[in-house]
Specification:
The protein is an alpha/beta fold. It is built from nine helices and ten strands.
C-alpha cells in the first residue's frame, strides 16, 4: 500500500493538506474523497483506517484537512485556531471543489485516478458538505454519509445572541481541552447563504445513488437528521442504515485502538456500496 501527501492552495492562498492512498499497481481507479466534520481532521480516529481499507479494495482514497479546520503541518493538534475561528460552510464547499478540480486537472492523482469516477464520503458536518456539493455538481458518481447533519443552523438562541453581541462564541475541545473561538464569519455565512446551505433542499436535487448511515445512539447528531435527508433525496437508488447501539463515531475514539463491532458494520456497508457502483 502506498501513501503520498499532497498540498493545494485555494483561492484565498490557504493550504489544503491531504494524502492519497492506493495499491502499488493501480491505474485509472475510482477515487473516494473523505471529508471530516466539525472539530475533525483527516487523521482522526477511523479516517486512516477507512482510507487504508478503501485503497486495499482497489480505490484511490483521498483524505484532507479543510483549509480552516485549525490544522497546519502538525497532524494531531490544532495549531491554527485563528483560521478555525473564521471557517464557514461555504468555505468548506469551496475547498472540496478545489480538491476535485485538482483531480480533474491532473494536479493530483495523475494516472492513478479516473477523473470521471469520483465518490464522496463525509462524516457529520462533512456529510452535509458532500451533500451540498453533490447537489450542484455533476462530477460525482455516488455519495455515502456517516452521521449526517440535516441543517447548518445548529446554535441556540442564547449562543446566537452572545455571538451577535460579542462578535464570537467559544467552546471547549473535549479532546485537547483547547478553547476554540468561532467568529461572526460562520453566523454571517449561515444568514447570508441560507438557501444555498439548505441541506434538505439540496437532497431534493440529488439523483445519484446515495447511502446514509447513522448510529441509533448518536447523541451529537440525532438519527432523525439522516432520516429527514433520506425522505428528501430524489435519487431512485438510496439506502439508509441505522446501526444499533452505535454512537456518533460508531464506537471509535482517537487514537483508534481497534475496530468496534459497530464500525466494522459501517465499513462493510460502505465498501459494499462503493463496490456496487464502481467495481461492477
Amino acid at each position: 500500500m502506498l501513501r503520498r501527501n499532497f498540498s493545494l492552495s485555494n483561492s484565498y492562498g490557504e493550504f489544503i493538506r491531504g494524502d492519497i492512498r492506493h495499491a502499488e499497481n493501480v491505474k485509472n481507479a475510482p477515487a473516494i474523497i473523505i471529508c471530516h466534520g466539525f472539530k475533525g481532521f483527516k487523521d482522526w480516529g477511523f479516517f486512516p483506517s477507512l482510507a487504508e481499507n478503501l485503497a486495499e479494495t482497489g480505490y484511490v482514497s483521498l483524505a484532507f484537512n479543510f483549509s480552516r479546520n485549525g490544522f497546519g503541518t502538525d497532524t494531531q493538534n490544532f495549531t491554527n485556531l485563528d483560521l478555525f475561528a473564521k471557517n464557514t460552510y461555504t468555505h468548506e464547499i469551496e475547498d472540496l471543489g478545489c480538491v476535485i478540480n485538482a483531480i480533474q486537472n491532473e494536479k493530483i492523482g495523475k494516472g492513478l485516478i479516473d477523473p470521471s469516477r469520483i465518490g464522496l464520503l463525509g462524516h457529520s458536518r462533512g456529510a452535509g458538505i458532500v451533500l451540498l456539493y453533490a447537489s450542484k455538481n455533476e462530477n460525482i458518481e455516488t455519495v455515502v454519509t456517516w452521521a449526517a447533519i440535516s441543517t447548518v443552523e445548529r446554535f441556540s438562541e442564547d449562543q446566537i445572541n452572545a455571538w451577535t453581541q460579542n462578535g464570537y462564541i467559544e467552546m471547549e475541545n473535549k479532546r485537547t481541552k483547547q478553547i476554540m473561538r468561532i467568529e461572526r464569519d460562520l453566523l454571517q455565512d449561515i444568514e447570508k447563504n441560507k438557501s444555498e446551505l439548505n441541506i434538505l433542499a439540496a437532497a431534493e436535487k440529488i439523483e445519484i445513488p446515495t447511502m446514509l448511515i447513522h448510529g441509533a445512539n448518536d447523541d451529537s447528531v440525532s438519527q432523525s437528521e439522516s432520516q429527514e435527508i433520506y425522505k428528501h433525496l430524489s435519487s431512485e437508488v438510496k439506502e439508509i442504515h441505522i446501526i444499533e447501539d452505535a454512537n456518533h463515531t460508531f464506537g471509535i475514539v482517537h487514537p483508534m485502538q481497534s475496530r468496534s463491532e459497530e464500525y466494522s458494520v459501517v465499513l462493510d456497508l460502505t465498501e459494499a456500496w462503493f463496490d456496487k457502483y464502481f467495481l461492477r
